[in-house]
Amino acid sequence: MKNELIDKLNSGSAVIGIIGLGYVGLPLAIRFAEVGYKVIGFDIDASKKAHIESGKTYIKHIPDAAIQQAVANGFEATTDFSRAATADALILCVPTPLDNHREPDLTFIINTIETLMPQLRKGQVVSLESTTYPGTTEEELKPRIESTGLIVGKDVYLVYSPEREDPGNLDFTTSTIPKICGGVTEECLDVGLVLYGRIIDQVVPVSSIKTAEMTKLLENIHRAVNIGLVNEMKVVADKMDIDIFEVIDAAATKPFGFVPYYPGPGLGGHCIPIDPFYLTWKAREYGINTRFIELAGEVNSNMPEYVVNKISDGLNSQKKSINGSRILVLGIAYKKNVDDVRESPSIEIMSQLQEQGAKVAYSDPHVPKFPGMRRYSFDLQSEELTADNLSSYDCVVIGTNHDAFDYELIKHNAQLIVDTRGVYRDPDKKIIKA
Ligand SMILES: NC(=O)c1ccc[n+]([C@@H]2O[C@H](COP(=O)([O-])OP(=O)(O)OC[C@H]3O[C@@H](n4cnc5c(N)ncnc54)[C@H](O)[C@@H]3O)[C@@H](O)[C@H]2O)c1
Question: What is the model's pLDDT at position 270?
């Protein structure tokens, strides 16, 4: 069974099923199609299928042409999950958010595997790519797969291989980012290494599924904790009248033992604010409190309020209050040069300002219209940045430092600037670092 599947994967005749065609699933589908596999993308969201069929992208950094080329190579999208039986590989790229109590919400993974269960057959490999706590694959997927009568490691192969996308980073592509892979059994790992070895330059095997799951969490927790540290340092430096960005740049000249992380208005994106709490939750089962993670979360989630207080100070120095002021937030994507607004601290800042009576507006060349979100609702379109428009606001807040902004134009025309990203280094009376 295993050799047959490996032969199919090696010969390129295997059919690859990708479940969840979002930021992770779509580039992966395109990469499998690029090396010549027949790829079927499954998504419950019919608009993904419609976009793919018409060759139109729905993720900014993925061009139409990449989708059109993949479709020309045989990539198709469907909402018909019965077709999963025809796939030799089923790769799960569905969301893993937190619920309202900030605990892991595995419903997407569980719904997906339960939908796939009737379609599972001997000779398939199932891979989970969603970020999650150690134990998920073996505790949630394996028993469900085996409840169909198939045995993992003998009939069906089960692996975990976390995604390492960095949207907007032009230095890497899906194929050049090394990929971790762990298997439930050695046979599973053997299959996983062939599956990914065909599309990724370097696949890194680890000794267990849990190791693979934990590796992804370490990577993201490392970022969350270090960003928390520099955010705390920023507050201290500010009180001491020291520019934290100059400090970080100076420290980064040390050729060993220091990695620069930069402060900002808080954490954003689908990963760094969320994933660490998957480990926190699981660690409790072992009687362990993950104090670093909690502390970093506390520091980082206080940042939007810190920025709002800085805005208040700036307005106050001009004898104004937040209440009644017109405030323009520049950049509502969570990081520069992308269009992803998930968990974006700029939006939390807008919300806090509005609660305090400000009239808020935003400008983001990557987000022309304020998108529908679960927790926030603003009926706004991106403002055009002109000299007149900029000067009409009481305060302009740099929330995200997109390259597309004209920072000279902003500096010359804004009445007051609150800079959360260290864009302006030289001291200036009307610029407040936050
Ligand atoms: N975005 C990133 O940069 C990134 C990087 C590394 C890891 N991850 C992880 O990868 C996973 C997916 O993240 P994403 O950013 O691609 O999410 P996303 O929201 O962009 O895409 C998920 C897709 O899954 C679909 N979906 C939801 N339930 C489904 C179901 N039952 N069956 C089929 N499709 C379903 C959604 O419609 C959506 O198209 C998450 O666990 C995330 O933490 C994301």
Answer: 85
Task: Write out the two tokens for 209.
Answer: 């599924």
Structure tokens at 228: 């928390």
Pocket residue to mutate for ligand 1, from 67, 80, 163, most atoms within 8 A of Cβ: 163
- Residue 390 CB–ligand 1 contact under 6 Å: no
Contact in structure between 92 and 137 (CB atoms under 8 Å): no
Indicate which residue's Cα is closest to atom 1 of ligand 1.
23
Q: How far is the centre of ligand 1, averaged over its atoms, from the C-alpha of 306 (Å)?
A: 31
Kindly report the backbone phi and psi dihedral angles of residue 427, in degrees, each rounded to the nearest multiple of 5, phi listed first.
-60, 140
Q: Tell me the backbone φ, ψ of residue 336, rounded to 5 degrees.
A: -65, 145
Tell me, yes or no, if 395 is annotated catalytic: no
209-239 helix and 244-251 helix, angle to the nearest 10 degrees: 130
Return the SS3 of 159. strand
**Cβ of 377 below 6 Å from ligand 1:** no
**What's the chain's Rg over C-alpha atoms?**
24
Per cent of the chain over pLDDT 90 is 96
